Amino acid sequence: MIQSVDRALQILEFLRKNPRGLGVTEISISLQVAKSTAHRLLMSLEEHGYVQKFGRESTYRLGLKFIEMNYTVTKNLNVLEIARPFIESLSKETGEIVHLVTLEGQEIIYIDKVENSSTIRIYSQIGRRGPLYCTAVGKSILAFLDEREAKKLVDKIEFARLTDYTLVNREALATELATIKKDKYSYDNQEHEMGIRCVGAPIFDHNGRPQYALSVTGPLDRMSDEILQHHIPLLKDTAKKISRSLGYIN
Amino acid sequence: MIQSVDRALQILEFLRKNPRGLGVTEISISLQVAKSTAHRLLMSLEEHGYVQKFGRESTYRLGLKFIEMNYTVTKNLNVLEIARPFIESLSKETGEIVHLVTLEGQEIIYIDKVENSSTIRIYSQIGRRGPLYCTAVGKSILAFLDEREAKKLVDKIEFARLTDYTLVNREALATELATIKKDKYSYDNQEHEMGIRCVGAPIFDHNGRPQYALSVTGPLDRMSDEILQHHIPLLKDTAKKISRSLGYIN
DNA sequence: CCCATGCGTTCCTCATTATGGAACGCCATT
DNA sequence: AATGGCGTTCCATAATGAGGAACGCATGGG
Question: From the CB of residue B109, how many other CB atoms can be counted at a distance below 10 Å?
């Protein structure tokens, strides 16, 4: 790990967490380096567009370079292109929000979202991270990862009781993962957010790895057990079709 | 400029230009450094999620971290939120694609796009860069920047004849910029892409700077002079409304 | 009105730290 | 089985990034 690169990237992280901007001194304190060091790092980042000063403020914020980089990354994530039509249909058929996520480290990242009601998307979840243990998508992925990898991830989970319904111990989670593996879909019964219920299913890539997952999300009153009996087959079918499109056999 | 940080960010640039992935050796050659140096830089970037290896390939690509960073950046670019409803109306009224761009260095970056026909957006222009001298949005911004800054930018332009209609000399551009300043809107008559015609107008931020611009884009047959006589007042009005919402007085 | 404070910026010396070369191991290709 | 190309690891060296001190500027309080 190269010290100066690591510090530069740490700065980006600080700025991500402080989107209103940070000054040189604040950053030098957070990093525990001299002001001149922080200043030099910022100049390097600024040169490449990753941070910028706005107007005549002397605070730095994340730069527009990230919008450009995001363009390339999403353009080349072909799961997005492949999955798009499928998740649009699923959203239309269920009338609910559909999310597509990918496993990334010990969390999931939302990589696409479709809601049929409106075209607004700027403030969607896309790009947000979420936990594995209390989301339908996360549990679907965990349940279908090979045992060794799943164990590794489960061991690292730091459970937080986000709602009264959140599972907060490994035993309860293990039991549920077994059920998910049998049923081939997962629930999130207000475990992540009160009043919100989701059903999820894993998507397998051409290596047979449950790299992605799909979910249908809605408020409690529109996600009763009877209604879910309608949604779940559609969800499972969509996930299966996407997996097949990604080159997954069987 | 810190050498190692600069090199690390250069690697990201190489990967952006080679989205199919690059190996350690290829990168070390591009950077003109030892393989071990390239390797160490890549490990630092990988640690933070900015690059990653896919599957069992040994080539690196841009990482999903950029999706996460993009989320924060766009969320805090409040011009997007403010402009959204206006550009949606404009798209509905004109029936054409509407783009929102921001000035960034010597180019524009597309930061939002609305097309009323479909919800597809993944492969939109958002995040792409474009030139100042042959786009309606670019010319609108150039025309209204204060003289000193405009001159700086115009002097740096490297003209490329993208189509038969592209303006490729400073004199012709200067004449047109004067017209734009008088009319308060700009044309792109197939200057950037054959068969595509655009009209653009500047958006002023609270400092009175034409930081953003707006355009209506369509194929030649739907963008005749008569039709444009209908679109242009709507465009100018929309740009004015957004400017006012951003705090621009007068 | 002036001084104190806190900020960003610049400069220079020192030793920390990134560098490049060499050597290794792995894989695919012949 | 041998070769070439790749990613990876290690290590000594000196290049380079770090920190401290000093400056200039703005701000606000006495």
Answer: 22
